[in-house]
Amino acid sequence: MILPIVAYGDPVLRKEAEPITQDYPKLDELIQNMYDTMYAAFGVGLAAPQIGLPIRLFLVDASPFSEDEDLTSEEQQQLKDFKRTFINAQILEEDGDEWAFSEGCLSIPDIREDVFRKSKIKIQYQDEAFKTHIEEFDGLVARVIQHEYDHIEGILFTDKLSSLKKRLIKGKLANISKGKISVDYRMRFPAQKKKR
């Protein structure tokens, strides 16, 4: 089932998400709905706060990046096969040189800005079977994970921009929170929620 994506301005996007246990209600169904929602919006990652749930759950499918011709065949292969569900994730280390990449977000449509992030991460998480993993990632995979991880920490990519860039997009952000934007996927805007 495709769920509406919560728009910028909703308080759920600013909450530090809570860990969940194996008996979280209908978890398998929720994860499948999140994948359906992400694919319907042509995203490469989606975090539970983006569908209104302040829980430590996000998913990543980096395969769309595998078609980038600027990447080596090894990088393309790594991205093509990368589909993962992260439950109760904790980034243990961020390392390497910071590099800029133009990021966007399904909750903040039509805004893309260069964000600087470290190139390597070490992360601990649980998969759908609640098996614990500690893994290291780098490059675009690390970046997508960092972006989604920020969501479960209540952080948005726009928080990482310079004060000048923030001022330049302030009007666009205000319009998004009011629903004054046209997108080709389902969204829920803060203003709509209050009217109910």
UniProtKB/TrEMBL annotation:
Question: GO molecular function, one example?
Answer: peptide deformylase activity
Q: Does the keyword Iron apply?
A: yes
Where Fe cation binds, per the record, is at 105, 147, 151
> Which keywords are on file for this protein?
Hydrolase, Iron, Metal-binding, Protein biosynthesis
Q: How is the cofactor bound here?
A: Binds 1 Fe(2+) ion.
What are the catalytic residues? 148
Matches recorded under Pfam families: Pep_deformylase (PF01327)
Metal-binding: present as a keyword of the record? yes
User: So which cofactors does this thing need?
Assistant: Fe(2+)
Q: Which EC number(s) does the record attach to this protein?
A: 3.5.1.88
What CDD domains does the entry give? Answer: Pep_deformylase
At the top of the EC hierarchy, this enzyme's class is hydrolase
The organism's superkingdom is given as: Bacteria
InterPro entries from the xrefs?
Peptide_deformylase, Peptide_deformylase_sf
Which reactions appear under catalytic activity for this entry? N-terminal N-formyl-L-methionyl-[peptide] + H2O = N-terminal L-methionyl-[peptide] + formate
NCBIfam families, per this entry? pept_deformyl, PRK00150.1-3
The family classification in the record reads: Belongs to the polypeptide deformylase family.
What is the role of the protein in this entry? Answer: Removes the formyl group from the N-terminal Met of newly synthesized proteins. Requires at least a dipeptide for an efficient rate of reaction. N-terminal L-methionine is a prerequisite for activity but the enzyme has broad specificity at other positions.
The name this protein carries in UniProt is: Peptide deformylase
Q: Which organism is it from?
A: Geojedonia litorea
